């Protein structure tokens, strides 16, 4: 058995010496006729446009406003409402969102020179669907 392995190794080594050797072909650089030379172009020269900065800051007096909207789309399960009003100094408002767990989140807020304060409340009780894990543990 050792003789067969030794003979195989000698045969592989001897075959490596007799493998044909190829050299990469040599190519001459292509010669182009004068009619095929690429035309030479000069880069166009552009001057940057000159602008005069004329800026006047416009200030507007604070304006009171009031808005509200309500969305109830049963197909997309969107149900929310937002109301806000402002006088010259204070912004007050509220929004309501139907949450996926069945509760409704109601946020009432006030923003004035002293900062932003919000009161968050929830209506209803959270309901979660029964999972398959509950059934397998029984």
From TrEMBL:
PANTHER family found in the cross-reference section: CUTICULAR PROTEIN 50CB-RELATED, STRUCTURAL CONTITUENT OF CUTICLE
GO terms for cellular component: extracellular matrix
GO terms assigned for molecular function: structural constituent of cuticle
Pfam annotation, one family: Chitin_bind_4
Keyword terms of this UniProt record: Cuticle, Signal
Protein name: Cuticle protein
Classification of source organism: Eukaryota, Metazoa, Ecdysozoa, Arthropoda, Crustacea
Signal peptide limits: 1-15
Organism: Daphnia pulex (Water flea)
